[in-house]
Amino acid sequence: MKQDKILVALAGQPNCGKSTVFNALTGASQHVANYPGVTVDKMSGRYHHNDRWVDVVDLPGTYSLTSYSPEERVSRDFILHEKPSVVVNVMDAANLKRCLYLTFQLLEMEIPVILNLNMMDVVQKRGIRIDINRLSSNLGIPVVPTIMKNGEGKKDLLDAIEAVSSGAEAQKPVRIDYGEMEPFLRDIISCLAVAPYLANRYPIRWLAIKLMEGDSKAESLVRENLPEPEPFLQIVERSRADFESSHQESPEAHIAHRRYQTANDIAQTSLVLPPGSPRPFSDRIDGLVCHRLLGPAILVGVIWLLYYLAIVQGYNLTNYTWPLLAKLRSLVEGIAPSPGFVEIPLLREFALWIVDSVNALLNYIPIFFILFGLIAVLEDSGYMPRMAFIMDRLFNRFGLHGQSTLPMVLGGIYVGGCAVPGVMSCKGIPDERSRLATILIIPLLNCLAKVPLYVLLINIYFAAHKAWAMFFISTISLLLVLPVSKILTLTVLKDKETAPFVMEMPPYHLPTLRGVLGRAVERVWLFMRKISTIVVAVAVAVFVLLQFPGISRERMASYHAEKDKAVETFFKKIKNTPFATQLPKDDLMPLINFSEAYKDAKMAAGDGAAAERLNAEFRERDPLYFAIVQPGDDKEALKVNRELRKLIKERKGLLREMRMERIDTSFLGTLGKWLEPVTRYAGFNWRVNVALLSALAAKESSVATLGALYQPEEEGQALEERMAQGEEGFTPLHALALMLFMVLYPPCMATAIAVKLQAGSYGWMLFSIIYPMCLGIVVATAIFSLGSALGLSGLEAMFAFYGLALLFTLFMGFFPFHTKIQQQGATPTNGGIDHV
Amino acid sequence: MTLDQMRPGSRGRIKRLSVRDKLGQRLMDMGIYPGLELKVVRNAPLEDPMEVELGGYFVSLRHDEARFVEVESA
Ligand SMILES: Nc1nc2c(ncn2[C@@H]2O[C@H](COP(=O)(O)OP(=O)(O)OP(=O)(O)O)[C@@H](O)[C@H]2O)c(=O)[nH]1
Ligand SMILES: [Mg+2]
Predict the structure, then answer these.
(1) Which residues of chain A have pLDDT under 70?
(2) Nearest partner of A446 among A479, A420, A411, A422, judged by Cα
(3) What distance lies between CA A779 and its chain's CA centroid?
(4) How many Cα atoms within 13 Å fall on the side-chain side of residue A118?
(5) Is the preceding peptide bond at A278 cis, omega within 30 degrees of 0?
(6) Which residues have CB under 8 Å from B6's CB, separation 6+?
(7) What is the DSSP letter of A542?
(8) A37 to each of A405, A499, A754, A815, B65, how far by Cα in Å?
(9) Which are the contacts of A277, defined by CB distance < 8 A and separation ≥ 6?
(10) Where along chain B do its domains lie?
(11) Given an 8 Å threshold on Cβ–Cβ distance, is B29 in contact with A256?
(12) B17: which strand partners?
């Protein structure tokens, strides 16, 4: 009989290609990277094969299945409690011997296992020979070789999963002989066997081995499931002590040793390694990349190149994409209900508001695309662990970890990341104290959503020193984050647990164009999806907060009166022309709209034949209006044209005044003004306050809100021009304070939730929101007030602040830890693990 | 001698791990266990951590951790 549903778990060492296998099986695209520890949570997907649905779970990569690290606990608990029908043990086949260590632990858990020898291309290239059949019979489980990067062997794997899960092939897995420990294991097993509940639910031999290893989670399992655990646990404790004193080796060392020994024995019969260095190519690259002088230089170069390509060149690309977005806006303008002289329909305002909000962000797509592509190159190539290797000493001084590098890169150490994946990937950091420190500082890095505001401000206020300003803002967050992390480590985090660094250095891979482009598109798409939900939601909320309560009836009446006056003046002035009688007295809007439409079209068409065609088209649409907007040499028409332009200008002035008044009296405007007495010292006026407030839900909104606050006077004007026009009292010093506040801005909603998930409490989430806010206002105030008092220019203040931050960072770096870093270093006299 | 005292380029055989629990288990799980031969490949640009090769497999660890690995030079 066929089971309807099969559950397959993918387990294996970090970086062996599990996510690649997962993607190949399910067609989903999971995050694939040549960096140990990218998948830190289990991912699930499904596929259909031979009339059956198969659920697949991608477990985090682990070298072992102890309870010392979270990812090992996740993988182990999943296998233990969910009891998958099959575990596919994905493995880097070039590392077969070492990886069998994990395979044995999976087999001990008494679940059906398929060994998937992945990366067979590497095996072939290195001249390693593996006897698949012999390996399979030695292990007693099916072995499937694949090159999953190209999808080779996928069919075999599917068939093997089918065969094993339907029970067609009974497994007779190899069982490790623990030699002198076997009598001890037998004793424990016989004690456990009296508790049928425990024995039925958990693989009993596995439990016995884990208890001998001194595994704390195995002990809690016993505690939870045995009615009287204490006497039994005392027996276990005595067994461990007895074994150790009689064999001069700790039980856990003996167990590890036997596993490696067995792996060796099996490899001996089924594996032939070629002579010589195992990876000459990677070794040679590492000689350069990890070189004492070249290494850091290359690292800085890589970061610089990333800035240059993504931010500078990406920004140049937006010159080509902005007109497209402007076109989108005029399209919406055409569809939306048309405006009256001073009465703009709410629906029109709303539609344009949303378009402006979204456009302000869509404009940055080229930057995101290049950035994500480059990060994908770094990830796939295997450069990331080298970064961890180079950075660990430095990060460690500040309470962070070499492996904080990946979360920090994702979070935006390079300018442009996203705090959400950054915080989520902190799970891979084995050291709890460093992990919490990393989680708490990631929101202070330059996430993508902050970049638009930086780019905007830099383009207006630091236009002459763009590269310097960009360098400043991209590196200052690091200089702020390091001392903050150290302070957190010395204070709130000082009692948290620490863990070893020990990390694998995988060989380099050549990234594939398809992989890199695919990931860039995918991540841009993910980002857009985030925009379409969060940003639109925020835009709607901000719209409401900005539109209401709106202009009072009396004020509205006065605007109407002004309109009537303007129209009256217009007709008085053109009284002597024949047009005076031809134009409708009560409604000039068609003429105004016609004139505006003609101006836009003319700008788009340019000169020459296209302009001729355009003229003909507009003349046909309305000959009277056309005579006015394109008067030629006709004296009277020229006069009307001049008056019309005056009228239009007056109308725009009225509209702007009304908009100001509306925002002025709106809910958000009131709040922004209410905060102004405090934020004034940081140089933020109420408009900036409004933008910052709207960024609380998602930082993308800061630019979106500014984009909408400074509405275009001329169609197609970029936000830079609009803001520079609208904010004349603003100086580079203001901009600097604002940028620094943005660096230290509290996490967005999504990040706050990620912090809650990763740090495990609402307390930490609140902390992660409140401390940056306080820090931000202090730093911005200091910069602006001191800068103003000392009469510094924006650029001078920038350099001064940078210097100070650098000094403070150095000071904190040399400030010693008072906590014991190596608590686990204490060695019991008899606790050593001897060579047997 | 302990591993942290070894210079880049030198080889040795692991004699004993003088630490257990978390660090001891982690070292073993990463393939650093008594009896194995290793070679110190390099130190990081800032001296710490160090990279070692164990039978075609490369691992980096901090000197603070390497001092618990006793080696005899081969
Ligand atoms: N040469 C080669 N490379 C492969 C193959 N399969 C995957 N890779 C590469 O191996 C690297 C790691 O792949 P992932 O799928 O992220 O590995 P993982 O096991 O999910 O890693 P973690 O989630 O970190 O545990 C990527 O750069 C892949 O492109 C293969 O068959 N041959
Ligand atoms: Mg993965």
Answers:
(1) 1-4, 28-42, 168-170, 277-278, 307, 311, 414-416, 421, 428, 527, 530-532, 534-535, 697-698, 700-701, 704-705, 707-718, 721-728, 750, 817-836
(2) A411
(3) 26
(4) 27
(5) no
(6) B12, B40, B71, B73
(7) H
(8) 12, 15, 18, 30, 20
(9) A283
(10) 3-73
(11) yes
(12) A833, B69
Confidence of residue B42 (pLDDT cuts 50, 70, 90): very high
φ/ψ (deg, to 5) at B27: -60, -45
CB A49 within 8 A of CB A440: no
CA distances from A85 to A53, A167, A407, A459, A659 (A): 13, 9, 34, 58, 64
Q: Is the dihedral of CA A311, A314, A318, A321 positive or negative?
A: negative
Determine the Cα–Cα distance for residues A124 and A130; give it in Å rounded to an integer: 9
Which string of b and e fits A299-310 if b means at least 16 CB within 10 Å? beebbeebbeeb
Q: How far apart are the first and last CA of chain A?
A: 51
In eight-state DSSP terms, residue A528 is: H
pLDDT at position A33 is 52
Q: Which position has the token pair 């000392």? A: A790
Taking 3-state DSSP, the helix, strand and coil percentages for chain A, each rounded to the nearest 5, stand at: 70, 5, 25
Q: Can you tell me which residue has the tokens 């549903």?
A: A5
* β-pair partners for A130: A271
Contact indicator for A706, A719 with CB cutoff of 8 Å: yes
* Token representation of residue A258: 């036997």
CA A404 – CA A438 distance, rounded (Å) = 6
Question: Are the C-beta atoms of residues A9 and A84 closer than 8 Å to each other?
Answer: yes
Closest-CA residue of A relative to B23 is: A500
Check A503 against B59: CB less than 8 A apart: yes
- Bridge partners (DSSP) of residue B57 are B54
Q: Compute the distance between CA of residue A3 and CA of residue A17 in angstroms, rounded to an integer.
A: 28
Integer Cα distance of A577 and A634 in angstroms: 11
CATH of domain B3-73: 2.30.30.90
Rounded Cα gap, residues A356 and A326, in angstroms: 9
Yes or no: say if A295 and A390 are a contact pair by the CB < 8 Å rule: yes
Tell me whether residues A97 and B55 touch, CB distance under 8 A: yes
Which residues form ligand 1's pocket by a CB distance below 6 Å? A 12, 14-20, 32-34, 36-39, 61, 118-119, 121-122, 147-149, 380, 509
Q: What is the DSSP letter of A496?
A: S
Q: How far apart are CA A430 and CA A599, in angstroms?
A: 63
Crossing angle for the helix pair A732-743 and A466-490, to the nearest 10 degrees: 40
Rounded Cα distance between A746 and A764, Å, is 13
According to the model, what pLDDT value does residue A442 have?
93
Cα torsion A132, A134, A135, A139 to 10°: value is: 140
Tokens standing for residue A499: 């863990």
Decide if A723 contacts A460 (C-beta within 8 A): yes
- Going by their DSSP bridges, the two strands A129-130 and A271-272 should be labelled as antiparallel
pTM: 0.75
SS3 call for A60: coil
Q: Which two tokens stand for residue A530?
A: 């985030």
Cα separation, A668 vs A271, whole angstroms: 70
Q: Identify the pLDDT of residue A710.
A: 64
Half-sphere exposure of A551 (CA within 13 A, CB side): 19
The whole-angstrom separation of Cα A235 and Cα A219 is: 12
Tell me whether A258 touches chain B (CB under 8 Å).
no
Per-residue pLDDT, averaged over B41-63, amounts to 90
Instruction: Give me the residues of A, 811-830, that contact B with CB < 8 A.
Output: 821-822, 824-825, 827-828
Calpha distance A469→A446 (Å, rounded):
14
**Total residues found in chain B within this entry:** 74
Q: Which of A474, A439, A344, A365 is nearest to A758 (CA)?
A: A439
